Structures are given as C-alpha cells and as structure tokens.
Fold this protein.
Amino acid sequence: MLNSTLELIERRRSTRAYDPAPLTAGERETILHAALRAPTAGGMVLYTIVEVEEQALKDRLAVTCDDQPFIATAPWVLVFVADYRKWLDLFEASGCFELEGVTPRKAPGPGDLLLACSDALIAAQTAVIAAESLGIGSCYIGDVLENGEVHAELLGLPPYTLPIAMVCFGRPLKPQEPIPHFGEHLVHRNRYRRLEASELAEVATDLERLHAPHGLPPGVTSYPQAVYRRKFTSAYMDEMNRSVAWWLERWQDG
C-alpha cells in the first residue's frame, strides 16, 4: 500500500521541458534545507553545492555538457561537488599536520573520493525528492563530468573537488506520465550472481518493451544493441572516460 511519499517516488521522472517561471526563494530554501539533511559519511558533509545563477554560465554548460539545450532553459541548476578541499584547508588551519604522534597525511585518497561522491549524490537525490514534493521536476546531468578541464575552470573547482552530478530543476511544462521500471533481476540475496542466458534474454525483452515507444534505430535488432551503439561506444562516452581519468589524476596529484 502506497503512502504519500511512496506515491511521490512512484510518479517521479526526469523533466527536460520547463515552465519558465522561476522557483521562489522559499522553494529553493526548502529544497536546499532538505539536501543538507541528507546523511553523510561520519557527519563530515563531504560535498559542496554550487548554485548556477548566471544565464551565461547555464548557456555555456548546455554546450559543454554534451550539447543539451534544455539545460539553458532550466529555472534552477545545482552542481553537487564531491569536496575534500574544504577539509584539507580546515586541517591546515587547525594545526592538524603538526599533531604529535600522528603521521602527517596531506592528501585524500581514492577511498576519500568515493565517500565524498556518495555524500554528494545522497544530497542530490534528497533534493530531487524534496523538489518533487513541491511539484518541481528535475533532471540529472552526468555529463558535467565531461570536459573536466573546462568545467573545473568554469565552476572554479580547485584540486580535491569533483562535480559528480548536476541537477536541473523546474516545473514541468506539461503533465508527465511515470515511466515503468522492472526489478526482478536487480535484487540479489546475500551475494552477487551473474545472470544466466535465459535471464539475460528476459532482461533484454523487458527493456525493449519499456522503451518500445521510441523504437529501435536502424542497424540494430535489440535494445541492448541500441544501448551499446548509442552509449557504450559513443563519442561522448569516450570523452566521459577521458575526462574522468583526468579528474582522478587531478585528485591523486593535487
């Protein structure tokens, strides 16, 4: 039986066409307050939220984030940044590197990065659900990870930060139907297991049925083939992987 929260989650879908009306100050404050209520690793709040207010910056991000014009039309844009820079600055300002009996550690590692990414994404999803409860739609933009050198400059991101997600917010321009999902093969008990051939065939059939309205592009005969061509082997994924390697090297080298 669904309660109001579960009904909200059930109807939520990505919104890419927005009513141009801006969010009110109260709505923005409410969404940010909810995001800041999200759980974090060790209570360290290993993230920073960048509000993108300048139209010129939104216009630029619409191009650098894989040419998605709707980004420029979103009334409100937030970038969720995995952030250890602020803690390193706090450690230094607090004399942590001179503590007796402690081996100095002045750079975060890959574990620190993954914890920071988790914190930022949990906050982002909390903001998304809070927005939905106010009738405000949202869309995640993972492409902010692309063009790392450009986005680091545009957003003023120092070493030991990484923009793990950007989210566009706005009231849907028209009513939207929820997209059905399937989950039979997504939950494993106690241990991960690879799917058998018959189960993989079921997954492919389910995916094709869910995405049937869009049809299959020329040259492919199944939805997995379409995803392989359009996403896994695409030019933008080549750039995504190049750029993420740059972000990781930057994190490691400082």
Observations:
- The chain has a mean pLDDT of 94.
- The radius of gyration is 21 Å.
